[in-house]
Recover the amino acids of this structure.
């Protein structure tokens, strides 16, 4: 599902080595935390896995797509196999909860019937029944993040990549969100959570890949995140 073989990334403008001969493999159905202090390479890995940037060296494959050689015109099709969740939610402020989620289906060509059937199911899954007609500014931070998760999930992605998804939430809401992502994983979707919140990581017995200075320093089940942000 995700394969990074001997991947390096050097930003030409600054000369910064953001990834240094990385080897990361994530299988279908896994739940993985990617952790490390600021500047360890977490953001670069997200950009590499979503095709935003190309590696300087090595090979990357995600959901059967060779990102080392993928053509630009194929990127939209590839990205439909991903669900990406951001720290800042990125909701459309003048659209309702329902319309924010429906819009994600509309842009990939779903029919009105498919949208009518799928959106209520996903909103119920993330616990937003009764919030369909609310605007984002009428929701709490935790509810807005649930809308973002519903939007990421609605097109049945093979993998969800969550980039610091709890960064704007208090500890209780952060735990709720992680439990929701765990539930989604148990339903069959692969989940990769990128975070620097060690307390949250240590509360779950999941695989933890730890980065430092662009290199993998540990990778294992029931991992423990010991680095400072």
């Amino acid at each position: 599902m995700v394969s990074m073989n001997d991947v390096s990334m050097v930003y030409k403008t600054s000369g910064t080595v953001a990834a240094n001969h990385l080897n990361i493999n994530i299988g279908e159905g896994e739940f993985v935390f990617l952790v490390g202090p600021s500047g360890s390479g977490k953001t670069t890995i997200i950009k590499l896995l979503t095709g935003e940037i190309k590696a300087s060296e090595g090979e990357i494959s995600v959901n059967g797509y060779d990102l080392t050689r993928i053509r630009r015109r194929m990127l939209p099709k590839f990205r439909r196999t991903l669900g990406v969740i951001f720290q800042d939610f990125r909701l459309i402020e003048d659209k309702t909860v329902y319309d924010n989620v429906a819009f994600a289906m509309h842009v990939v060509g779903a029919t009105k019937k498919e949208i009518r059937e799928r959106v209520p199911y996903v909103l119920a899954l993330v616990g937003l029944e009764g919030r369909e007609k609310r605007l984002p500014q009428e929701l709490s931070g935790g509810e807005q993040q649930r809308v973002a998760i519903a939007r990421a999930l609605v097109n049945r992605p093979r993998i969800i990549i969550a980039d610091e998804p709890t960064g704007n939430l208090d500890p209780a809401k952060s735990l709720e969100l992680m439990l929701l992502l765990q539930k989604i994983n148990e339903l069959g979707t692969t989940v990769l959570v990128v975070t620097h919140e060690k307390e949250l990581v240590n509360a779950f017995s999941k695989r933890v890949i730890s980065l430092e200075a662009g290199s993998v320093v540990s990778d294992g089940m029931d991992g423990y995140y010991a680095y400072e942000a």
Summary: The chain has seven helices and ten strands. The first strand starts at residue 2 and ends at 10. The chain has a mean pLDDT of 93. Strands lie at 2-10, 17-26, 31-35, 57-62, 65-66, 82-85, 159-163, 190-195, 207-212, 215-220.
